[in-house]
Amino acid sequence: MVLEYDWENSVGYWICTTSHAIRRALSNRLAQERMTLRQWEVLACLSQRQNSSQAEIAECLGIEPHTLTGIISRMERDGWVRRVASSTDRRRYSILPTERGHAVWTRAVDWCREVRNQALTGFSPEECRLMKQYCERIRRNLGDDSDINMPAANAKAESLSEPTESESSILELAHSAG
To answer: Which of 43, 127, 162, 172 stands 20 to 30 A from 153 (CA)?
Structure first.
């Protein structure tokens, strides 16, 4: 018995397979520099939400906090982040990027731009703007108005052909596959 579905009309399928292709391309590029996609996602989250706890980062990434523990530990071992105890809550630790983490992030932003440029080859700035609007509308239609992937600094209208520090366009697509 064959399981049938109208894949050619599935918006979720289009978005998921596109996101998977972008994530795979970015992951391959990051691997050349000995960085995992999850490590990049942690730094991306920290670029948008300074002073985040492990639980907040896990929520941002859509994973369980205990899943993030090993990733944070490796990043701390490699000198990319450090844990800082909260002065008001003994159970809370903020995850902060170190100078080395900032340097790695700066290089990673360049790698993201390479992947974004490859993904958007042949698209006009208007097509990119429309794609962004369509994705935003889908999220609103589904009741997701949190804009968790759009930091306030990038909320103003801007062209995808002009890169931003947080690479929010790639992050939006990367998180849609979760």
So the answer is: 127
